[in-house]
Amino acid sequence: MTLSREPDRELDGSSAGGQFLRTALGLAVLRNESIRIENVRGDRPKPGLRHQHLAVLETMAAVCDAEVSGAELGAETVAFDPTPASAEPDGSPSLEGGQYEVDINTAGSITLLFDALLPLAPILESPLRVTATGGTDVEWSPPLDYFHEVKLPLLRRFGLVAACEVDRRGFYPNGGGRATLHLGPSQLESLDLERRGPLEAVRLYSTESESLADRDVAHRQLEGALARLEVGEGDAPAIERHETTAPSPSPGSALVIRLDYGTGVAGFAALGERGKPAERVGEDAADGANRFLEREAAVDRHLADQLLVFLALAGGRVRIPAMTDHVRASRELLEAFDIALELDERGDDVLVSSGPSDSLL
Fold it and tell me: Per UniProt, which keywords does this protein have (predicted)?
């Protein structure tokens, strides 16, 4: 399909990956503008759309009844126009919600698909339900427990109406996991995440496929993490342990550690691999948590990137642990949509802020 008009914005993804595509599609809907992206995933060894990116594009097009071109595997140029159907008479963006089924066809990430949809909540007129089949705990994406137990609870605190329902896990290489995102009309509040406060709790979520249950993988991952965590005695946080044995077409495991502060929250994850001891999986996640414990940031480095669009939507302040390439690329993309975020380096951390006058909506 060829778009019926020239795009409002031309974007270049030559130095970015899939997150650039996902965020750009959401921004186009929120701004009610058409876009063309050249050099999609241009800095990846295999540029262009892969299965999970195509699933995001097709789902966003279905939800918004948008016009799309380039919706095919390997496409390096994509055009997306949500304006024919997703607007009120005054031109402001609006979506009706509804129910959708998505099959990513591979172990492509379900959580990244859901991530792309979350920013649409403020313009929903009715609830949106998306059930997806694919990978729930796979490389290069947030494990399901990170999305379900770290990101969603934090965003709900600031007004997001969202929940995730899990039917089965999908590990690499077969995927086959199934989960449903429930997203409701939301009025987002300004993000107040400048200071994290005292450490109050440590929560560990360890998951194994049924095929690994006889080896006590989930339990051993927890033991490895707890043995490595360096939580000071003076902090005296509560510790919660959650072990899950889940049906899955592929053998696999995952561990997520959540650090709960008075205000801030941070998550750290590791996935099981063939030949890797379960204890080491737990240790890897704990190593990330230990590095964060030494800093003053309010959120982890992955939330840092993912929260920028919500800063643009609702305003606020977030203290992040580093200016990563993902944060830099997301900030530049927001600037391409005329949204400026202010940066204030504070020692090793960075305070990112946006005022109400800079809001996307």
Answer: ATP-binding, Cytoplasm, Ligase, Nucleotide-binding
> For the segment 162-195, what is each residue's pLDDT rounded down to a tens digit?
999 999 999 999 899 999 999 999 999 999 999 9
pLDDT in tens, 143-166: 999 999 999 999 999 999 999 999
Task: Tell me, yes or no, if 326 is annotated catalytic.
Answer: yes
The answer to whether residue 86 scores a pLDDT higher than 60 is no
Q: How far apart are CA 281 and CA 279, in angstroms?
A: 5
| Complete DSSP assignment for 18-29 | HHHHHHHHHHHH
pTM, two decimals, is 0.94
Q: Specify binding-site residues for ATP.
A: 115, 302-306
Q: Which of 51, 53, 148, 326 is catalytic?
A: 326
Residue 289 φ/ψ, nearest 5 degrees: -65, -40
Fold of 95-193: UDP-n-acetylglucosamine1-carboxyvinyl-transferase; Chain (3.65.10)
The architecture that CATH gives domain 199-293 is: 2-Layer Sandwich (3.30)
- Report the distance separating Cα 322 and Cα 305, nearest Å: 10
